[in-house]
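Before anything else, study the sequence and fold tokens given here and see whether the fold suits the sequence. Record follows:
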Amino acid sequence: MSHEPGDPLPRSLLTPPAADSRAAAEARHAANAWAVADARHARAAAHAHHAADALNTLRERLRATLGAELLVVDDARYARDDGAEGPFPPGLVVRPRERAEVAELVALCHELGVPLSPRGAGTGTVGGCLADHGGVVLDLAGLDRILDIDERSLLAEVEPGVINAALQEAAEARGLFYPPDPASWKVCSLGGNVATNAGGPRACKYGVTGNFVLGLDVVTGTGEPLRVGHRSIKGVTGYNLAGLLVGSEGTLAVTTACTLRLVPKPSGALTLLASFADEIDACAAVHRCQTGGVVPTALEFADRLCVRALLGAGGLAVPVPDDAKALLWIEIDGDEGGLDASMLRAAQHCRDAGALDISLAGDPSARAQLWDVRRALSHTLRARWPKKISEDVAVPLAQLPALTRAARELGARHGLDVASFGHAGDGNLHVNILYDPAAGPDVAERVHRAVADLFRVTIELGGTLSGEHGIGISKRPYMPLEQSAPLRALQLGLKRVWDPKNILNPGKLFPT
């Protein structure tokens, strides 16, 4: 079409076709997206290059100042803990021999901006000691000395790598007693117990790790050594900083020594195993014992799937009726003179709640057999199912029956096996989701939904996401279910004070 000078331009020449306009916009959008992606990749590459340079610099400076023998060459085992997270291979593993070396290492990491994850024995289940950031794993197992057991002051001074069982043995040899007893007590470290505020069966009577921490020697995120707390049994000078650090999962400071309270060793203990027709009856027995003149040291529970697994493995130390669908371990300790009457009262409470059978263990060997079955429950389940995810939710005691019922219903709703066992005496149950990853293409999604539903129900029952394992990586996405944004922001503000460059276990606990 011709166009004479002076004539108005046709609309078709003034306005591009709509389709062309859309295509141009889409092209510009695509170009912008590629530019943003390129910039992001460039920043990531620059960050990775800087991180690698910083790690290499740290390695060489450690060789020069502390010695090459502190660097662990065989680091494959540090990529995982006892849970499902990982593998996260660390960039470097350092195993100090002296507490002063920890402060030097942390100061160097602070200077160079290298992330650092403290690690005890690696028995955690939520990835709290893993280097998902690829930085340094600080292996504290080399700091394994019991520094002092003060029999007159009823306290112990220990380094963080001391195994829980080693302190128990040393204390009992002096007529003393360290009550916190996680299921992994024979292999877990006291530093790790402090980091997660670990519990155990005896928490029913004595409390968790935090109830026995008097003071801590720590190194902040800048490399500054501090002593918080006290050696006296009581102390209210300033803020309770030792209490703040217990359960902080290595995000605020690195523990280099612990001052722990001891108690006199009980002169005797008795244990019984009661079986029930269902979980609700067992929960009723828990309530009767706790309100009926008995002071149990431990009240441990196992549901019907656990019972089936134990019977199938031949792992029970005493006969149990075939129709049993719940078990309750009850232990009472104290003065031998009153134990028999207390245990008879506990047995009667179980009968009144509908117990099918009761077996009593008095001598140490029989008691040890019963407790070995309970402590091995997690491994018994793991041996029968290819995959096991264990969540350690806790609810108010009155909601224990509702939690056991909800756990069973979760399994039915999502087509998964769910087994619950744990510390009924303080409302803390280990709800285990058991599955075979090869069972179907949607099994991973069903597991994810089951975990989310479990946490939602727990919060609705007035409970908490973790009773003793901690948050780590695994439970980090669910923190908003329990804690508000302002509360999380307050805690992150505390972290910035203790660890200004965010090098200590960065990204753990709180979603980012």
